[in-house]
Amino acid sequence: xxxxxxxxxxxxxxxxxxxxxxxxxxxxxxxxxxxxxxxxxxxxxxxxxxxxxxxxxxxxxxxxxxxxxxxxxxxxxxxxxxxxx
Length: 85
Fold this sequence. Notes:
Number of helices: 5
Strand content: under 5%
Distance between the termini: 45 Å
Radius of gyration: 24 Å
């Protein structure tokens, strides 16, 4: 976790201070929760997004055997290109 400093106007600070006292938490925790909700989305939204991609490629024929697919990607001239040969 990293520390930061914020400048809040008086009305915002008072509002956060009251909410923190009522909920038995800190202003820092309220700010972290608000930033997390605003920029990361709710836990449920993130869970839904992750579940939407599970199995996305399951019906693709070229990835039926994932080991063979990865080895196929590794074949070729990639190493020669990286060496500059």
